[in-house]
Structure formats: C-alpha cells, structure tokens
# Entry
Amino acid sequence: MLRLLYEGKLVRKDNKILEASSSVTFIKTENHNIIVDTSSRDKRDIILKGLEKLNLSPRDIDIVINTHSHWDHVGNNDLFKNGEIINYDNYKSLKDNEIEILETPGHTWDSISVVHGDYIVVGDAVPLKDNIIKEVAPGINVDRELALNTLRRIKSLGKHIVTGHDGIYFIFE
# Structure
C-alpha cells in the first residue's frame, strides 16, 4: 500500500522560491511502515493527521527514507524516533523485497528514488508534474544533462511518479 500524506508545494516568483515543502509518502510493506521524505517543519500537523487517518502514529514508522538531504525533505525526521533513517549513504542496507532504491542523481549527487509496486517516489529528481510533461530538468540541479537523463530514465519505467512537490503524476495523464 502507498498513500500520499501530503502532496508537497513549491511556490516561485521571478525564478525565486518563496515556499517549498516536499511530498510525504507512506508505504506499507509486509515487514515495514515506511515514510519517504518528511517535508518541512511547518507541515508537522498535516503529517500527523495523515498518519492518524491510517490509524498510525509516528512511533509506528520503522523506516524513514530521505530522497536527498535538503531541508524541505527532511524537516520532520525527528518525529519518527523509532524509524531507521535511510539515505544515499546507507540505502543498500535496506532489506525489504517490496522496495527497490534507485540512484537518481541530477538535482543533487546523492538523490535516490523509491520503487514500490506501480509507483516510484522520486523527490526532486522530478519536482513538478511539468518536469515530466515538458521533459525539463529540475530548475535546481548539480548537472542539467544528468538531471534530464535521470528524468527520462524515471519516465521510461512506466510507473506512477510521486513528485517532490506536486503530488502524483499518473502514467495515463
């Protein structure tokens, strides 16, 4: 099971980011309760209410996966005191046969994405649906061509894409 607890938000004006908060995704596997990205600190209540709707609390989460370490993706890691933090440095230690972690560099060198069933949770490898639709690299990147190649690779998987700041892009859109 995969549920979006918060779809994220990115507000820009004149090429300046005014507000950023990442999508927050809950994944239930046979062995784990997983949160992918924990958004910015001002979204704590939204996350808690989303968990409550699933009859869960932060203590029920045993794994937190950070797609990368930017503040708007890791701001609520501290809510999940029982959760093992998984990121680029240690993702190979994650043992769950329902989860696959892919390296998806471009936005940052250490970006990872999480594949679960028909979904891929990509963080800012694809921040907005428009990045997919228009096939445009993220505006903030360490290597534009690498970011674009990563975006194309993600699209080629044929999965629903949980974007970094714009909810879910369904493949039939």
In short: The first strand starts at residue 2 and ends at 6. The chain has one domain: 2-169. Helices lie at 44-53, 71-74, 129-133, 144-156.
